[in-house]
Amino acid sequence: MSLVAVLAGMPDLLERTLIEHAPDSRGQCRECRDSSGISAAWPCMMREMADEASDIRNGGLPGTYGGRHRTLRAVRG
Ligand SMILES: [Zn+2]
User: Which DSSP category does 24 fall into?
Assistant: First the structure.
C-alpha cells in the first residue's frame, strides 16, 4: 500500500498534514527543512501526497493525481 493510500485512510493525519505543510511568506514549506535548515519549495512532496490522498477521498482514482513530484514518485514506486 502506498503512503498516499495510507494517508487517504487516516483523515486526522491527512488533515494535519495539509495544515502543517503550508507555504510560508516566501512560498516555501513551513514544515519541511533539509539538514541545513533550508525550506523545501512548496508544494513539497509531502503536501502533494496529502493532496493526492484528499483527491482519493473525494472520489479520485489512485495514481491519477498530477503534480510537481509526479514523475519522481512514479520512479520510486
Ligand atoms: Zn512540507
Answer: -
Q: Which of 8-17, 26-35, 44-53 has the lowest mean pLDDT?
A: 26-35
Span from the CA of 1 to the centroid of ligand 1 (angstroms): 21
For the chain, percent of residues with pLDDT exceeding 90: 53
Predicted TM-score (pTM) of the model is 0.77
Which residues are placed with Cβ below 5 angstroms of ligand 1, an ion? 21, 29, 31-32, 44, 46
Q: Which helix (H) or strand (E) holds 29?
A: strand 28-33
Cα angle, residue 48 at apex, residues 74 and 41 outer, rounded to 5°: 105
Nine-digit cell string for 51: 493532496
C-beta pairs of 17-21 under 8 Å, 24+ apart in sequence: 17/46, 17/47, 17/49, 17/50, 18/47, 18/50, 18/51, 18/54, 21/46, 21/47, 21/50
